[in-house]
């Protein structure tokens, strides 16, 4: 179990690190490289994956929050290490895109994941935030998706999610121009889930995380497992049939489940339910 604040690893420059801690059932992952506005090195990407796995396997953790140290979420990939992060030719398993590996790790977590975005959120930083289930953004957020400023291609997973969220023409606008857009416009376009005023951002976000941690984990885990595949485009017929069978099985399980009995009893009594279901780790 991760308790207090535990440093996972440091970047090869010794400047950036990833921290994780557990606080009231919330597992926090903090990108900490303030000298470079929390830009990511390849070693920090590897550390992010390690932190995600640690908190995913910690039974004390019911929800995972990804955020940045200080005033910024992240400036994306550290430009001085961009080839090592996106085009690592030295990785033992072959050429590696470490940013998309973090994306995949976040997307694969069975627990609910939240990105808390404030200040700078540039380039690949939005891709990581969008890999979470919910994106909470502060009104001071500065967002731009910047591959056209560098002459590179935005990772495929990030492009696909961008298209899903904003549509074809807006995705092209963001990718072609690299222009910064206001946080309010980003929310209207679907790049963020909720926009929160700066003076209440941390309090509102923390309260929401703790609320989710108190809800039925049976409901949350089951719905996430069903929703994510259903939201994918081009689901093969065989997979669609399996998904339909999974929905039916989950529907029947919920009726006889302990959490439903607890929730119904508490509702009728006007009490706060104390749910008991826990996922197998």
Would you summarize the structure shown here?
The protein has twelve helices and nine strands. The protein has 281 residues and is of the alpha/beta class.
Topology:
Layout: E1 4-10, E2 17-23, E3 26-32, H1 42-56, E4 63-68, H2 82-86, H3 98-107, E5 113-117, E6 120-122, H4 124-130, E7 134-138, E8 142-144, H5 147-150, H6 156-166, H7 168-177, H8 183-189, E9 194-196, H9 201-214, H10 217-231, H11 237-256, H12 258-269
Parallel strand pairs: 3-4, 4-5, 5-7, 6-8, 7-9
Antiparallel strand pairs: 1-2, 2-3
How many H/I helical runs? 12
Number of strands: 9
Largest sheet: 7 strands, mixed
**Which bin fits the share of residues in helices?**
40-55%
Q: Compute the gyration radius: what is it?
A: 19 Å
Whole-number mean pLDDT: 89
Low-pLDDT segments: 1-13
Give the H and E element order.
EEEHEHHEEHEEHHHHEHHHH
Q: Please state the structural category.
A: alpha/beta
Gross morphology is globular
Indicate the proportion of strand residues: 15-25%
Instruction: Give the CA-CA distance, first to last residue.
Output: 12 Å
**Order of the strands making up the biggest sheet:** 1-2-3-4-5-7-9
What does this structure look like?
There is one protein chain. With 281 residues, the protein is α/β, with parallel strands linked by helices. Helices cover 46% and strands 16% of the residues. It contains twelve helices and nine strands. The chain has helices at residues 42-56, 82-86, 98-107, 124-130, 147-150, 156-166, 168-177, 183-189, 201-214, 217-231, 237-256, 258-269, and strands spanning 4-10, 17-23, 26-32, 63-68, 113-117, 120-122, 134-138, 142-144, 194-196. The strands form two sheets. It has a seven-stranded mixed sheet. Strands 6-8 form a two-stranded parallel ribbon. Helix 1 links the parallel strand 3 and strand 4 (63-68). Helix 1 (42-56) packs parallel to helix 3 (98-107) and helix 4 (124-130) crosses helix 6. It is globular. The two termini are 12 Å apart.
């Amino acid at each position: 179990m991760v308790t207090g604040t535990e440093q996972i690893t440091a970047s090869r420059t010794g400047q950036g690190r990833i921290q994780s801690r557990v606080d009231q059932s919330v597992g926090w992952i903090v990108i900490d490289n303030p000298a470079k506005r929390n830009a990511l090195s390849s070693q920090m990407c590897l550390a992010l994956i390690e932190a995600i796995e640690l908190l995913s396997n910690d039974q004390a953790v019911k929800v995972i929050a990804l955020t940045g140290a200080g005033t910024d979420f992240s400036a994306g990939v550290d430009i001085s290490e961009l080839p090592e992060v996106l085009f690592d030719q030295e990785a033992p398993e072959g050429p590696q895109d470490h940013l998309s590996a973090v994306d995949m790790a976040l997307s694969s977590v069975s627990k609910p994941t939240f990105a808390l975005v404030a200040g700078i959120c540039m380039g690949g930083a939005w891709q990581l935030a969008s890999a979470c289930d919910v994106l909470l953004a502060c009104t001071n957020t500065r967002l731009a998706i910047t591959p056209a400023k560098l002459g590179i291609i935005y990772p495929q997973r990030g492009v696909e999610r961008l298209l899903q969220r904003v549509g074809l023409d807006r995705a092209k606008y963001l990718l072609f121009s690299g222009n910064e857009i206001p946080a309010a416009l980003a929310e209207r376009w679907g790049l963020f889930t909720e926009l929160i005023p700066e003076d209440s951002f941390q309090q509102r976000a923390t309260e929401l995380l703790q609320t989710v941690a108190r809800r039925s984990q049976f409901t949350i885990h089951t719905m996430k497992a069903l929703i994510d595949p259903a939201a994918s485009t081009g689901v093969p017929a065989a997979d669609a049939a399996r998904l339909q069978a999974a929905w039916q099985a989950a529907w029947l399980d919920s009726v006889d489940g302990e959490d439903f009995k607890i929730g119904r009893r508490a509702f009728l009594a006007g009490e706060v339910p104390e749910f008991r279901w826990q996922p197998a780790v």
